Amino acid sequence: MCNNISVALIFLITISTSCVGQKSDNESGILKGVIGIYEGNCMPGPGIPPCEPRPISTTVLITELSESFLEEKLISKIKSNDDGVYKMSLPPGNYSLFLMDEEKVVCTLIHCPDKCLCQPFTIVADSTTIVDANLDHAQW
Questions:
Q1: Which residues lie across from 97 on neighbouring strands?
Q2: How far is the C-alpha of 98 from the C-alpha of 68, rounded, in Å?
Q3: What Cα–Cα distance (Å) separates residue 5 from each residue in 12, 16, 17, 137?
């Protein structure tokens, strides 16, 4: 009987140690942020406080890293709540963030003029990445 227990114990130890250091197939990171909108007269001037975006509910679109929106590069989408807040889980990698502005898809271009990219960000496993974005309907 002791021999059977020893064999079972060795089997369990072997299985548990063989899993140490293996990555889970579902490791991911968190993307979250706040979406806002600039509206009205935002022309700066003496004694005029700077414009602040107000939170807005809209669709947030995540694609492969890109300089323009292409439906075939769409990875995920989510609607921000009435406070503009959104949160989603994504696998590690490099992505672009786009927003729905009425019927149009828009983004903030970064790294221009060399290589324009739409709001690039990186997701790291077991980490949170914060990307806030704004729609611009203001007069500047």
A1: 62
A2: 9
A3: 11, 16, 18, 72
Q: Phi-psi category of 18—alpha, beta or left, where left has phi over 0 and alpha has psi -120 to 50?
A: alpha
d(CA 101, CA 75): 19
Q: Which spans in the chain are helix H?
A: 2-18
pTM of the entire predicted model:
0.78
The residues near 8 (Cβ < 8 Å, ≥ 6 apart) are none
SS3 call for 14: helix
Structure tokens at 93: 């990698």
For residue 59, count CB atoms less than 10 angstroms from its CB and return exposed for 0-12, middle for 13-18, buried for 19 or more: middle
**Radius of gyration over every alpha carbon of the chain, rounded to an integer in angstroms:** 23
Residue 2, token pair as written in the block? 């002791």
Q: What is the pLDDT of residues 6-44, one digit of tens each?
A: 433 333 333 333 444 444 446 999 999 999 999 998 988
- Quote the tokens at residue 48: 């005029």
- 89 beta partners: 30
